[in-house]
Specification:
Layout (H helix, E strand, L loop, with lengths): L3 H16 L2 H5 L6 H8 L15 H12 L6 E5 L9 E6 L4 E6 L7 H6 L3 E4 L2 E4 L6
Helix pairs in contact: 1-4
Amino acid sequence: PASSADVVDLAHAFLYCRATYGFAMREGHMDSITSGAALFTVRKVAYFDPAEDACQMTNSTALRDMIGLEAPDVIDACWSTAAYRPSFFVAVDDERKWVVLGVRGTIATRDFLADVTASQVRFCGGGAPLRFFLF
């Protein structure tokens, strides 16, 4: 069984997982299956697509707001996606003594390009996506 400290750490790590989706997550565009599905359908034809049109600063601010970080705690962040390069951030959590690498999954049409180009490489006795090593 997990200790209570492990459960607290896991809950805190989950906040980072949510924050990886930036502005779209903070604004509630992923709070339900219906709103999440809208990101790939009706939101694509809307004036503003929260998954693809939010700028670097807006997404980074959303990340910091959701975690409670200060600007210097976010070492690097890239919210645009390209082949072999998914959206990601690197942050320092001084309270937990963590260095966090958050890699966003598929939320935007552009993310499919990173998904399609993903390939596995040998790493630490197992496998890891090649794109993790191309930042």
